[in-house]
Amino acid sequence: MRMWVLGVFVASLAWLAYVGPGNSQIVEVSPPDEPAPELLYGFDEVQPRSHVNRNIRQSFLSYYQYLAISYCFARHNVTLPGFEGLFRSYSEMELQNAEKLMGYMVKRGMTFDFHSINVHSDRFIQCYERDDTGETAWSYVTKVTAHVLKNQKDLLNKYKKTHFSATSHNFPHLKAFIEDEFMEQKYQKIKEIADTQTRLERIRTNNHSELGLYLFDRSLLS
Q: How far apart are CA 165 and CA 45, in angstroms?
């Protein structure tokens, strides 16, 4: 066995001596050609990317608003657990929307931007303060419901702009993604919130506002 190994070693030395430095060749192995990112992802237009980034920002903004509102309903001078859970579900929905959009951007090889949230904006509804302003729980629920309905319509319009941009730039994948994940959702939520608004108005006009609001809130828990 040792003699065989020694023989192989000597043969190797003889081969190297024969080849010599002048006859040696360096073989460079090139990696296979890879398509450029814009060809790989087909997502090189600036406008659709900016629209998706805007959708991400608006989803985070809505998540922040709805979460703040849900905790307002949990305060000791409000205690409407049904509405608290309802707006908590809205906030979770918008957070999931933001994560879906970010996941899509990563899958398509793009980056997304984070922006600060202006909590002093007029778009934010302040928490219910019965002791300071005399506002009733009823008026607060009515105001918040109208605000969220308007916000959902605004979000739908922004998704429509993204959809239009994807269509005009011939991005069928983005177009289908917006349709399947967001537009149907927004139409359903707008209908749901509008129904809630109608039921609240019906209770108010029947002069059973306080008791009716309590019963309606309890119905949201089921």
A: 10
CA distance 47 to 51: 6
Domain boundaries, the chain: 45-110+137-220
Please indicate if the annotation marks 210 as binding a ligand: no
CA-CA-CA-CA dihedral for 22, 26, 27, 31, to nearest 10: -160
> Which residues, in sequence order, are CB contacts of 86 under 8 Å at separation 6+?
70, 220
Which stretches within the chain are classed as H helix? 2-23, 37-41, 46-72, 81-107, 130-133, 137-168, 172-178, 184-205, 209-221
Torsions phi, psi for 16 (to 5 deg): -65, -40
What does the pLDDT read at residue 205? 76
Asked if 186 contacts 155 with a C-beta cutoff of 8 angstroms, the reply is yes
pLDDT, residue 155, reads 96
Class of domain 45-110+137-220: mainly alpha
- Whether this prediction's pTM lies above 0.85 is answered by no
CA distance 34 to 30: 11
CA 81/CA 126 separation, integer angstroms: 18
pLDDT, tens only, 119-177: 655 556 677 665 555 567 788 888 899 999 999 999 999 999 999 998 888 888 899 99
Give me the residues of the chain with pLDDT under 50, please.
2-6, 8-10, 13-36, 39-40
Residues 88, 70: Cα–Cα separation, whole Å? 5
Q: Are 147 and 125 in contact (CB under 8 A)?
A: yes
Tokens read off for 214: 């309590």
